[in-house]
Amino acid sequence: MIRQILFGSRSLALLKGGLDAGAARIRVTAENIAHAETPGYTPREVRFEELLGRARAAGEVPLARSHGAHLTAGSASGEIPRPRIVARAGRDGAEGADIEREMVALQKNEIQFRALSQMLADRYRQLREVIRPS
Amino acid sequence: MRVDYLDRLEVSASALAAYRQRMNAIAENLANAQTTRTPEGGPYRRQEVVFEAGAVPAAGDAGGGRGAVESALSGPRSVRARVVADTTTPFTEIYDPGHPDADGNGIVRYPNVNPVTEMVNLVLAARAYEANVAALQAEKRMQELSLGIGRA
C-alpha cells in the first residue's frame, strides 16, 4: 500500500523516467564532448520523449490528469518506456561531435533535470505534509 | 552496491588528461621551435598528440540488462592520448652559412614547428578542456540535485 502511494503512481513513474533520461543524457553528452576529437567515434544520444510519445499514441500510457475529476484514457497497465541510448544518425558525414551543440544540450538537459527533480521533491514534500501529525 | 555514478566522471576526467597532454606537447613544440640539435641527431621533430577511444570498462553499466536505461551500444569509453612524431611535415631549411649546424651548402635545418599552427591548436585544446570541465561540473550539479530530492 505504502509502496503503491510512494512509487506506484503514474506521474511518479513518468518523473522517474524523465530523470533517468536526464541522467543518461548528461553521461552521453559528457562522452560526446570528451570524444569530440577522437577519430571514428560516433556521437550518441538518448531517446525518451519520442518513445513516450509513441507509447502514448499506441494507448499504452494513460494521459496525465491534472485534476482528480478528469477521465483517464488508455490502459493503466502500460509500462513507461525506458530511455534508450542510440548512436546518432550521421548527418552531413561529419565525424565526431559538434562541441557547441553538445554544450547547448548540456545546459538544456540540466535545466530540465532541475525542473523534474524539483517536481519530484515537491511531490514528496506533499506526502510528508499529509503524513505529519498536526 | 556498484557506485556507478562516480565512474561517470571518469570519461570526462580522461578527456581532461588527454587535452592536458596535448597542451604539454604544444608547449614543448613551441619551446623547441628553434632547436637544431637533439640527442638523436638532426633538428627537433614536432610532437603530436592523437586521441583514441579507450577500452570499455568492465561490466559496462549502460549495457542491456534491467537497468534504468537500455542501450545496445558498448559502455562508456575513456579517451586515450598517444604521442606521435610528425614525420610528414618537412623541416624548415634556411640558408645561414655562419650557423654551427649548417651543412656543406650553408643550409640549416630547423624544426618542422610552425608557431602559428601551434598557437591555434593551443587555443582549441584549451577550449576543449574547458568544455570538458563544464560537462564535469554539470554532472556534479545534477548528482547533487538527485541527492537533494528527498531532503525536506
Automatic annotation (TrEMBL), chain A:
Primary residence: other
Any one GO biological process: bacterial-type flagellum-dependent cell motility
Localization (cell): Bacterial flagellum basal body
InterPro entries per the UniProt record, alphabetical: FlgB (IPR006300)
GO CC annotation: bacterial-type flagellum basal body, rod
Keyword annotations: Bacterial flagellum, Cell projection, Cilium, Flagellum
Family: Belongs to the flagella basal body rod proteins family.
Quaternary state and interactors: The basal body constitutes a major portion of the flagellar organelle and consists of a number of rings mounted on a central rod.
Purpose of the protein: Structural component of flagellum, the bacterial motility apparatus. Part of the rod structure of flagellar basal body.
Protein name, entry field: Flagellar basal body rod protein FlgB
Taxonomic source organism: Eiseniibacteriota bacterium
Automatic annotation (TrEMBL), chain B:
Cellular compartments annotated: Bacterial flagellum basal body
Keyword set includes S-adenosyl-L-methionine: no
GO cellular component, one term: bacterial-type flagellum basal body, rod
Annotated keywords: Bacterial flagellum, Cell projection, Cilium, Coiled coil, Flagellum
UniProt key word Coiled coil: yes
Flagellar basal body rod protein N-terminal domain residues: 9-36
Chief location category: other
Signal sequence, renumbered to the chain: none
One matching Pfam family: Flg_bbr_C
Complex formation: The basal body constitutes a major portion of the flagellar organelle and consists of four rings (L,P,S, and M) mounted on a central rod. The rod consists of about 26 subunits of FlgG in the distal portion, and FlgB, FlgC and FlgF are thought to build up the proximal portion of the rod with about 6 subunits each.
Protein family according to the UniProt entry: Belongs to the flagella basal body rod proteins family.
Protein known as: Flagellar basal-body rod protein FlgC
Organism name: Eiseniibacteriota bacterium
Lineage start: Bacteria, Candidatus Eiseniibacteriota
